[in-house]
What we know:
The chain is an alpha+beta fold. The protein folds into 2 domains: 4-87 and 164-177, Elongation Factor Tu (Ef-tu), domain 3 (Beta Barrel); 95-147, no CATH class. The protein has helices at 23-26, 64-70, 95-102, 105-111, 116-127, 132-147, and strands at 4-8, 11-13, 16-20, 35-41, 44-52, 58-61, 78-84, 167-168, 171-172, 176-177. Strands 1-7-4-5-6-3-2-10 form an 8-stranded antiparallel β-sheet. A two-stranded antiparallel sheet has the order 8-9. The longest helix has 16 residues, at 132-147. The chain starts with a strand and ends with a strand.
Amino acid sequence: MSTIRFETTPLKIGGWTILRLPERASAKLPSRGMALVEGTINGFRSRIVLEPDGMGSHWFRVDAALREATGIDAGGAVTLTVEPSKEWPEPDVPADLNKALASDPQANALWVKITAMAHWDWLRWIRATNNQETRSRRIEVAMSKLRSGERRPCCFNRNLCTEPAVSKNGMLIEPTQTRK
């Protein structure tokens, strides 16, 4: 894959600062779903897991450490130079899922064998709800599916935005531009 260069502007959704890829940049990625890229943000080297916005493009959250390292809070244009990567990092597994995996040796046996990208899919599916009861039920279902040999969640549309804090009905909520 070739290098993708673009500028974008920080956006706000609630308390989150995000960077959304222009459609022309997103179209160069290998997937409309989650994608991994490596490159620079305002010259700062980074590896970024891009989330789908549910409308054919991608976005990612800019946390405090990344804002500080890149000067993104300035509110101006942000320059990115990225390339798709196939070397997925292991995601942080939340405590409730870790506990379930630790208590289910059969499900855990498959979990340790599947790819990091499959782990990301399971986590996106599990946390794509604000309802704790639904989340708990999804963890139970995940354990059952892993015990039966299923490596990925079934019937999960990877092209939808699954982060409840910034999405509605699988679509990224309309963000606003940050102000200087």
